[in-house]
Amino acid sequence: MSNCKNHQDQPSAYECLNCKNVYCEPCVSVRRITGDFTAYVCKDCGGKCEPLNVIADERKAKAARDKTIAERKAFEKKDESRRPMKTKRAFEPNFFLSLCGSIFFPLKGRGFFITLLAPGFFWGLDKFLPADNSLGLLAWVAVMTFFSIYLFRVVEQSLDGKNRLPGLPDLKYWLWMAKPSILVGLTFFICFAPGNIYFLLRQKLDFIFVFLLGTGLFLFPMFLIKIILSEKLSDINPWAVLRAIAKTFFPYFASCIFLGGLVGVFYYCNLEFFAGYRDLGLGLKSLLMVYIAFVQARVLGVFGRYYRNKLG
């Protein structure tokens, strides 16, 4: 504690809040304002004075408050750093918007060039290696196998959220496709064998045949989606497929209508526009076939992506 400004041999007892000097008791005027309130006035500047013990207590209390506030801010900052950052979610369309957007899927990025080049390959194969001989048949089987595997990859990539046509499958993908190919083959048998067996036995295109064939066409897309999702033999269980359809009936029914409509467009255009032209009609037919196949694969992938949790 320092001594009085005016009396160096006297200990200070007050501090002036105006001039910031310390004084002993004789250097401070004491004025009793009321019975409970006394004012201390500096004789040098006329400012208000406070006893040093009061000032010391106030400074300690202020220091304690400042420390508490600093500790709370530090804790809040540390706690804020632990929280995950809130990022603005990008707009994600619902299933039905994505279903309609599948029409433009083959034209995005390199898909535009793939959609244009693949029909040319089919056109050349149909023109120079028709399937009416053993060599042509072998070539068509090889090409259609490759094209089917590529469509399978399109469905798989769309299911994983990719929005463009993938690159060509490599050797590892071909080896990986061995098991799914067997499952797809069994799916074909389960879906379409009843109708074909009925036709072979009865030789009639009646209501029962149409019902069996339509049921197979209705179940087949769900079989494919479930095979891609888990690649298990249990996925070709018709009862599991029916349960999955029941859980997603309306969007699945809309998807099937969409897929069937694309097939109808293909056959209508082929009969009404392409059949009258030879080479040009064959090229346009191949172009529409490839385009519709890519759109259909995209529809299956989009459906699987949106309703993955209900298909297990």
Helical fraction equals 55-70%
N-C termini distance? 80 Å
Specify Rg, calculated over alpha carbons: 42 Å
In one word, what is the shape? rod-shaped
Task: Estimate the mean pLDDT confidence.
Answer: 84
Sheet/helix structural class? alpha+beta
Low-confidence stretches: 87-92
Number of strands: 5
Count of individual helical segments: 10
Beta-strand proportion: 5-15%
**Widest β-sheet, arrangement of strands:** 2-1-5-4-3
What this model shows, in words?
- There is one protein chain.
- By secondary structure, the chain is α+β, with helices and mostly antiparallel strands.
- It is built from ten helices and five strands; from the N terminus they run E-E-E-E-E-H-H-H-H-H-H-H-H-H-H.
- The protein has helices at 52-82, 95-101, 111-128, 134-159, 171-176, 178-202, 207-230, 238-247, 249-274, 279-306; strands at 14-16, 22-23, 28-32, 38-42, 48-51.
- It has a five-stranded antiparallel beta sheet with strand order 2-1-5-4-3.
- The model is unreliable at 87-92 (pLDDT under 50).
